[in-house]
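S.,

As promised, the guanosine-5'-diphosphate run. Input:
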Amino acid sequence: MPRFRKISEILRMMKDKTHVRNIGIIAHIDHGKTTMSDSLLAEAGLLSPTVAGEARALDYLEEEQKRGITIKTANISLLHEYEGEPYVINLIDTPGHVDFSGKVTRALRAIDGCLLLVDAVEEFMVMSEVRLRKALEERVKPILFINKVDRLIKELKLTPEKVQEKFVRIINQFNNLIETYGEPEYKDKWKARPAEGTVIFGSALHRWGFTIPMMQKKGLKFSDIVKYYKDGNLDELRELLPLHEAVLDVVVKHLPNPLEAQPFRIPKIWKGDLDSPIGQAMMKVDDDGPTVICVSKITFDPHAGVVSAGRIFSGTIKKGDEVYLVNAATKYKVPQVSIYMGPFREVVDEVPAGNFVALLGLDKCRAGETIVDAAYSDQMVPFEPMKYISEPVLTIAVEPKHPRDLPRLIEAMKRLSIEDPNLVATVNQETGEYLLSGMGELHLEIACKTIQRDFNIEIITSEPTVVYRETVRTSAGPFMGKSPNKHNKLWFTIEPLEEEVMKLISEGSLSDVLSAKARREVLVKKAGWSSREARDVITIDPNMNILIDCTTGVQYLREVREMIGAGFRWACEAGPLAEEPIRGIKVKLVDAQLHEDPVHRGPAQIMPATRQAIFAAFLSAKPTLLEPIYKIQVRVPPQHLGGVTSLITRKRGSVFKVEQRGPIVFVEGYIPVSETIGLASEMRSATSGTAFWQCTFSHWAPVPDSMLPDLIRKIRMRKGLKPEPPKAEQFIVRE
Ligand code: GDP
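Predicted complex:
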């Protein structure tokens, strides 16, 4: 089938939603997601008119590979003919970080079906299971693809019986998970049944694949495939059982189109009123309804800047439309609308509901954003409320193997941290190290793989270290801060911040974005503060710290307020114990004496005075470190339950739930992040490799006192600081 189509023809297909499929590939790391996308693109990539004349998609791929860059887009569109009809299949990239924050499933939100790739050699791994569960939670229909079957034949040289055993194990595992986590009414329909053609077997690398009915139709047996390998006739095998045909036939036949998927998925993934005009338009995939787009991925184009790719759930988006970004609370006039053809973007006039679109010029847009017709800005409930801050808990130092790559590495880290808000890139000022912080070992591993593969930079990484927080356990003060020129004095007290307030900050309901009046209201109504206390909040630090002005009648205070706020945030960025961020303090400015001449009360005077007094108070209020704690969930056969619980307890953790579901026991507990580095191998030996487990960030907890001094010393030395932390006296100044 010719893969070239006129734009007008493509848009016609997009309007007829029965000819559209929006899918994704999910897999454990290294199970072949990238290889599969590249192979499908090479065989079935929809060619755009601008490219078709000059080159085939494959040439483009080869060219890019020669130059060492792999295609990195949010979406690849494929063209496939099934029973004489052409279909557009949008393959949406599900970013590596999609599962790590527990709740964040933005890429899955945008697709209706997915291929779960499972490596035939390794079988089900942690992330195969986690991702499958997430897909089921979002009502995304999964199809199982057993990949790397060539390795069973060529490398492991397994007998057909052994191969069969492996397949059965993987299929059972898949079906068990659907039984446990699937929606009751779909459980049965979604199970993998080889005889019905809902499991695909193949090799993404060697580009062949089959389902059982396909084999039967072509009169082939598994032993025939083995023979092709023996004879070295891979090309023939590829022609006989082309990968894209196997995959895309199944996609068209067994995965839902937007008209089928949306009425079933919207009630689950969107919390607004289904009877409202917006709700109704989304349920019907209405081209004429209000525009609603859920952004699944942000990429940077060196020429075009921020590209926001997302799924249109209702309405038709056109160039020049007025839209509203719900999380960013910003209005835009859309400067350019484009669609993907193969891996390329083509500018178009408009794109209808049920499809994917790439919008340019929305520079405040981030993954997870909800875009809505500006006329509905006050009625839209977002798909995913933006969490104010993520809690990256592990850090690695990254350096390029070749020093000349350093500028590119910095650029790559910067981009990654914007594309994935859960990754934080920083520089250690003392040691000059480039640091990357993330949600866990696997998260960082994937980030490093992206740097190496997509940016083509060879890197060396350090062992991961845990991120801590500093906090206080009592109140203290007032303590005086004196400016370097001695002309200004500020007095502060400190106390632990209430849990309720921290919760409000972490939800995003309390921040400096709000007006002073709105902040006051939240504190009084939701946190139970007295209106006097809530009267004058100077600033709220997203790391859960708050600064309040409790003074009355201090002259010139208004002029230096901002500077006091900046001094406070500076103090909170790196605490005095070990230069880790401060968390959970309430600081009150109780008095001040300021110089009458503005020249003598600039930021260089006020900021250090503020920080110095806060540190004096902090160190006098029983300071300690907080360590991140994971919630750990383990699935294990009952005979290995003891191994799991004793491992968790030995690691300073605790088990709070043990539940038997069918032949499997589910264990839930808490475990300090610092104890989980290298946990994989210990878990394997404690359970003979039968446990599946996952860790997600749960909360911060004080480090046991017995460990505190050593830990502080260790962190300080790693950062190139003096081993002993400063004493309060070093920050206390007298009148
Ligand atoms: P991803 O992390 O899921 O994107 O995995 P990749 O696509 O990068 O694949 C990881 C490794 O497995 C690469 O070295 C691939 O060449 C290899 N690979 C992928 N699919 C196959 C396959 O079907 N057979 C074999 N033998 N290797 C494969």
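The longest strand covers residues 623-636. The CA atoms of residues 46 and 342 lie 5 Å apart.

- D.
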